[in-house]
Amino acid sequence: MRVLPMILVSLLWLLVCSAYRFLGVFPHQGKSKFIMLEGLMKGLADKGHQIDIISPYPQKKTYPNYTDIAKLSVPLSLVNNLTYEFIQTVSSNIAKSTATVFGNDVCEAHLGNSVIQNLVRDPPKNPPYDAMIMEILSSPCFAAIAQLLNIPLIGVSTTLMYPWLHELIAQPENLAIVPNIYKNVNFPMNLWQRTYNVFSFLYCKLYFNYLTISQDDIVRKYFGPNLPSIRNMNLALVLVNSHIALNGIQPMTPALVQVGGIHIREDDTPLSHELKKWMDDSKDGFVYFTFGSMVLMETFPRKTLDIFYASLGKIAPVRVLMKIPNPKKLPPGLPENIRTFPWLPQLKVLSESHHSYLINYVLY
């Protein structure tokens, strides 16, 4: 008699343990940003959900429940391609570059993609999509896909909250205590810093919204003239790559969830024999000095590199490990305690040694 209730309970669990089908739309060409997004989507796939991805970075090997349905072109490759001159140009007006080069241009380049066009005209029905997940950086035009499919939209910010994102989920701006991501203002702030923070935040938000007005026209060009403005995108949830330990305390609405570090996974990439031996021979420890997957440090001005050389050379016998894609382009005079490699598995390097330190950069 006890067997029947157990069977009924088991059947009930089978009914409630259904998975969802998510559409991931990540058009940004930044590889480092996609790493975080990829980690999120693979985590959902590992839980049994069905994942369809539109991005510039398809998987090299098949991954369970994870399908790349479209590979987007990369009009501007950023992997090991950011020179000092390019960074200076972009940084001179970061809000404009974000809105145009990484916003309007991306919308124009990809909304006409045949896979995207077929998707909105004839969406899958067996099963249909339950929600769409997209990066909310500078291309709100892609939110039109979720609207046309009539599914909830989940946004992901791969860094902190940009000034133009708060109003989308009624997130309090709290400019007296929350610094503008684009300005070099730390917390806690004095009166002058708070005043500067308020004006810089409002400027960035209004300027970005002004520059991206054309995205409404781009959306209507590819999806029809009757679509509402992208300013009316309805975000159900925003996941932000931040953490209270690094970014401080701030009030948040239930629609904003911090997921900092969600993409960090066990790295099974084997270290080369040469790198492993160098690390093991660094008896006094070593510093891992990197500018990430995009910036070419070897293109920095000679004066800047000489400062790095002099500073890092002084910490010997502590050694320095640097990722330099084109080491032959470095000027002469590299200190003997510095070793360069064209590519390094960062997490594996840091986890393999108990005597390593990291010097990294921040690029929004």
TrEMBL record:
* UniProt keyword terms in alphabetical order: Glycosyltransferase, Signal, Transferase
Cite the SUPFAM superfamilies for this sequence. Answer: UDP-Glycosyltransferase/glycogen phosphorylase
One of the entry's Gene Ontology molecular-function terms is: UDP-glycosyltransferase activity
- Leader peptide range in chain numbering: 1-19
Q: Which InterPro entries match?
A: UDP-glycosyltransferase, UDP_glucos_trans
Under PANTHER family, the record lists: EG:EG0003.4 PROTEIN-RELATED, FI06409P-RELATED
Protein family: Belongs to the UDP-glycosyltransferase family.
Report what the protein is called. Uncharacterized protein
